[in-house]
Automatic annotation (TrEMBL):
Pfam families: dTDP_sugar_isom. Transmembrane segments: none annotated. This is dTDP-4-dehydrorhamnose 3,5-epimerase. InterPro entries: RmlC-like (IPR000888), RmlC-like_jellyroll (IPR014710), RmlC_Cupin_sf (IPR011051). Belongs to the dTDP-4-dehydrorhamnose 3,5-epimerase family.
Length: 198
């Protein structure tokens, strides 16, 4: 398992070894030992497994959870391909307001560990893209928040040639500045405390 730290503190990309033969392939995109070794010693406690399917052009996110309670995610593309985005929303973080992007696909089975307080989203590059989410907390609708993926100050590089398809919630989501003014951004120290206890 190869691990690479992204430009948002605490976000780690994992590239698993894929074993292929005439029968097909076998891969382990999540290995707790690798996560613990490369994500600051965190022990990731999974309470929910979710999937989403998306058609080409779908943009989901940027989503995050109110902190507390906060949730970490481990995201993997099982089929299709996405341009994936993470945004550091933790006030006081050394990488606050910084974003990074990477390509996840069913052919590489790369995965991302996304710590508490970091926003996540993606743009689907192929039809029938399937994303798997291991999540450290229960779904509570009132705690689920969104940042506009179209925030002009963030200027996320959505892929050229896509006509973005967004949910009403994501289209109406506030900018980073508006979230800050509303007091909805996670505090770095609190997010790190929660992340370390998962």
């Amino acid at each position: 398992m190869y691990a690479r730290q992204l430009n948002v503190e605490g976000v780690v990309e994992f590239s698993p070894e894929i074993h292929r033969d005439q029968r097909g392939m076998f891969v382990s995109p999540f290995i707790q030992e690798a996560l613990t070794a490369h994500a600051g010693g965190s022990v990731f406690s999974v309470t929910q497994l979710s999937y989403s399917t998306s058609q080409r052009g779908t943009v989901r996110g940027i989503h995050f959870t109110r902190c507390p309670p906060g949730k970490a995610k481990y995201v993997c593309c099982l089929a299709g391909e996405v341009q994936d985005f993470v945004v550091d929303l933790r006030k006081g973080s050394p990488t606050f307001g910084r974003w990074d992007t990477t390509r996840l696909s069913g052919s590489t089975m790369r995965a991302l560990y996304i710590p508490v307080g970091v926003g996540h989203g993606f743009a689907a590059l192929r039809d029938d893209t399937l994303i798997s989410y291991l999540i450290s907390g229960d779904y509570v609708p009132a705690d689920e928040l969104a940042l506009s993926p179209l925030d002009p100050e963030l200027a996320l590089p959505l892929p050229d040639g896509l006509d973005p398809v967004l949910s009403g919630r994501d289209r109406a989501a506030p900018t980073l500045k508006e979230l800050d003014e509303q007091g909805l951004l996670p505090v770095y120290a609190e997010a790190r405390r929660i992340d370390g206890s998962l």
